[in-house]
Amino acid sequence: MTRRRLAAVAALLTGLCLAGVGGFAAAEPPDGPDLTGGESALLRDRSIRVAPGLDLTSFQRLQPGGWVTGSVLSADLSVPTLELDIEDGGDVAGSPAPVSEFAEQSDLGAKGRTVAAVNGDYFDLNRSDAPVGTNISPTDGLRTAGADPRQAFTLKDGKAAVRELMSAATVRIDGTTEQLRSVNSPSFAKNSIGLFNRVWGDFPVGRLIEADEPVRIVTIVAGKVTGNSTDRSLLSKALDLPEGGSALVARGTATERLAGAEVGDTAELTVQASADVDLAVGGDQRLLTDGEPTDQDQVAAARTAVGVSKDGSRLIVVSIDGRQGDAHGMTIAELTRFMIELGAWNAVNLDGGGSSTLVARPAGTEDRTVINRPSDGRERADANALVFRSTAPAAPITDVALRPAIEPAHGLGWPEAYDLLPGLSRTVTGTGLDGNLAAAPVTGTFQARPSGVITLADPRATSEAVVIGGTAGSGTVRFRTRTGSAEVALRVRGPMTRLEGSDQIVAMPDAESTATITLTAVDADGHRVPVEPRDVKITADAGVRVEPADNGAFLITPTVGTGASKITFTVQGHQLTVPVTIGHTEVPLADFADPAGWKAQTARATGTLSAATGPEGGPALALDFDFTQSTATRGMYAVPVRPIAVAGQPQALTLWINGTGKEEWPRIQVTRGDGTSTNLDGPNIDWTGWRQVRFPVPAGTAFPLTVTALRFMEIRSDASYKDRLEIAGLAAQVPPEVDLPEPAALRDPVIISEGSVADRPQRIAVMSDSQFVGRNPDSDLVAAARRTLREIVAAKPDLLVINGDFVDEAAMIDFELAKRILDEEVGTKIPYVYVPGNHEIMGGPIGNFESIFGPSSTHRNLGPTKIITLNSSTGTLHPGGSTAQLRMLEAQLADAAADPEITGVVIFHHHPIDDPHPDQASQLGDRHEAAALDRLLARFQAEQRKSVALINGHVGTFYAEASGGVSRLINGNSGKSPSGAPDRGGFTGWSLLGIDPAKGPVVGSHDRLDWLRVETRARVDDIDLTVPGSLAVGETVAAGASIVQDGDRRVPVAWPVSATWGGSGVWIGDHERRRPDPKAIVAYDPGTGRLTALRPGLAELVITVNGVTARETISVD
């Protein structure tokens, strides 16, 4: 595949540029740069217009070094209405300001509108704050000139370049010419002469000079020397210079060169840089020189850089975010390669880190806004800025634009803003564009087509229209004015099935706090659509006030000092109740005064407990342990002799920890109110000394909690050490008590409750999480794995996928036993592929797995279905920072898109995108990667019109859901005990995927269930079928079944357990909705568990679960 073809497919799959779904339709989005290079994956980008000749692209991608998020500002310097300038605070020293203020200042002082600005030169931070390089304004001339040559971006006669610049200023006094090494610069060098004029400002020059250095100050006004002094006190305050006056300041040995200057002497000043340019912005590292990259490098950080094309007609400004979870910044080497990707021929690095700031006014808006996310958390006061002005005539209106009102005008966009559900609304706003592409008032008419898909709430709307979703499909809204027209595409998904909030509980620390929440409507296929306030009915209890905020959000404000309340949102009859708490109380749980109240437990380690002294002299507990005895996961636990009950509904538990910086992982093990166990996770202990650590309690947790262990884990196989930790003051942060609603049970129909996939043309068996060890080949876990494999072989699937954690510790003896088991139980009877999970590296490198089972990520075609397996053993899909398998995934999706024989894709990896449990502890650890993968699969299915599904394990629970039209299955454990409640998928077994490849193409009223259904195969030791022996005609009773497995685990036969119901004289289904067979004696509805007697006679109800059958006779009188 050619690079051009690969780039095109990657953009199609991963780019979220909104040209395909709407946007500023008349002000057409520009073709952005190709951002698919740099060994990157999971690209998301969006390009918008800013002004004539100026475009902005926002992007996010995963590179081998980590996530990179940034912006590219592209300027066509041949456009005559686009001008560039330098802005500073008026005085170059002592007057730093945010870039947005420089842009405002430039706007006020120019005839054109400032449409963008970016931070400029490095500066003397926290001292003079003056730029250190050479900076020249086309309107104000030379502002600063450095003492040494530094790289700078320059303009000359409209052509851009990167070159070295420094001071070339001179003074000629009484026939003698002296070089002035710097002009208004803090880089004023020892034993040199520097020039300072009124541009410098009031910062005392003396602070730039060491206290013991000799100095000489020569002042010049109107071409004459007006003073010559060695009085250092003159430099301890602002230079007293009249308009047009200058001061020559000599340091060290250079003082002798000005000693002969006398008052009244003629002084000819030549203030210039080392090259004749119209504009210059100082920088530092030269990234590219005539296409050749620098060999310099530095650590990853936020960056600002400028590149120019080979002919100097195009300018590329790059702003890279840093210190964010989705933005690690770039090294100088990475930045250099990126500039090459963008087509730069020469490039220079400007000031970065917290200084990096990009401001722009997107087309169709009125105000400038900060585009990037400054790593200080706010704009830093910088020394100067490169500004862009557009001087096109504002009138008349030249174009129009149309977009959803909730869609941000810049950034990566919000594709869901272009989606609707039937009956919900979307506001679209029409805007005029003046000659600079700024927003201008305009009126027109709206049309919505086709009428069955979308309609206008008010056909008389003139500048803003409300669109109502109808039946599922695609529609277009057109906005017509006398100037022009624009249109935006909207999609109507399926009917609403539930309402979700951005938060399940809102906890505000005090009465001065506020919070926001957004609402999302979801259809049966997992399409999530933002809900606008007009579609919402709000009922708020006393204590809070709720009102609409920006972009469809709701603002929550407390009206009491402390307390609890709740808010109920209702949309189309679907309700979401959100508890709200204000304030919390610290409740002590354990003070560790009596070490005898605790006992030590370990995993693959040894350790002891003893008394210690806490952070303020109080009691503490010391944990001494040895983590050198294994490379598998190790643990040191402090276990209370009596479990500690936690009253109320805490937001978090807290514990003081005296760390040593060895990065153990602290976890508090608790039993939830539903009897299941979980862990509350804290941050790795990367500090030394005492620190109070907060362990948040996830929303949706069942209360009350009971603390059963304080756990300190080491999961890194290459970490080996002994340590001593001390702990003190276990407490709970308990807010005012509030009734927490029971989370609704989601039952996605991709898992069959009643029936099987026996008639599907293609079947794939999935097992995971057996977790046996090679040193115990006759264990119960090995027996469970063998039993599962025998059941799978008997089912004769087309393929078996072992989806991770087949073994437990990743030693060679474990994989050798795994291979032996597979050879003995499967052999050549069915093909299989083994996908690594986290336990396949839990104590050994991935090479151990690969030496026996081959590559850790694979792809193959199973007839018309493409199978892709990925390695998530490290908890991410980019192990060790490598993007190779993600790029393989994208390439294979591109191959599936192009291959007419392929109708669907099934992807397997161990860790799911989302863990359905409240603690969400068993999911892809990189949440940005998880979201990007979710978008990638949904976009593939929507754009390529071929089905795709994702199959995972790891959680210990059978579960399924849909997201963006994509079915996602979590396979439960096939050996190890499950982690969830039995009625919520917490059972052992395996899954059988049933695929109909002919139904893979996504055309017409496509139903994802026609392509893929899943039959779970719960392990069955016994079935208990509970039905009455006799009924009277017309009588309805509750009936059902449960299975017994693994000793005493009792699992109700209901979703997600798949079963086949039948029998003689039995009609299966809801007899009130569908007329039963007239010969039927009883009707049984597995969905509701209702058994109804229809007519006299004998019936036999039969249930089969995973090949095991139970039957009961029912007499109807």
Describe the structure in your own words.
It comes from Microlunatus parietis. Keywords: Signal. This is 3',5'-cyclic AMP phosphodiesterase CpdA. It is a single chain. The chain is mainly beta and 1117 residues long. The chain has 7 domains: 1-37 and 394-489, Immunoglobulin-like (Sandwich); 65-162 and 277-390, no CATH class; 169-269, no CATH class; 496-582, Immunoglobulin-like, CATH 2.60.40.10; 585-734, Sandwich (Jelly Rolls); 762-1018, Metallo-dependent phosphatases (Purple Acid Phosphatase, chain A, domain 2, 4-Layer Sandwich), CATH 3.60.21; 1022-1116, Sandwich (Immunoglobulin-like), CATH 2.60.40.1080. It has 9 helices and 79 strands. The strands form 18 sheets. An 8-stranded antiparallel sheet has the order 1-2-3-22-21-23-19-20, with helices on both faces. Strands 46, 48, 49, 52, 55 and 57 form a 6-stranded antiparallel sheet that branches. Strands 47, 50, 51, 53, 54 and 56 form a 6-stranded antiparallel sheet that branches. Strand 78 and strand 79 (1108-1116) form a beta hairpin. The radius of gyration is 35 Å and the shape is globular. It starts with a helix and ends with a strand. Mean pLDDT is 93; it is low at 1-26.
**Class from secondary-structure proportions:** mainly beta
CATH class of the largest domain: Alpha Beta
CATH topology of the largest domain: Purple Acid Phosphatase, chain A, domain 2
Number of helices: 9
Rg result: 35 Å
Shape: globular
**How helical, in percent, are the residues?**
under 10%
Return residue spans where pLDDT drops below 50 for at least 5 consecutive residues: 1-26
Tally of structural domains: 7
> How large is the share of residues in beta strands?
35-45%
Report the count of strand segments.
79
CATH architecture of the largest domain: 4-Layer Sandwich
Distance between the termini: 73 Å
Please tell me the overall pLDDT: 93
Pfam family, one: Metallophos
Signal peptide: 1-19
Organism: Microlunatus parietis
Domain Phosphodiester glycosidase: 263-388
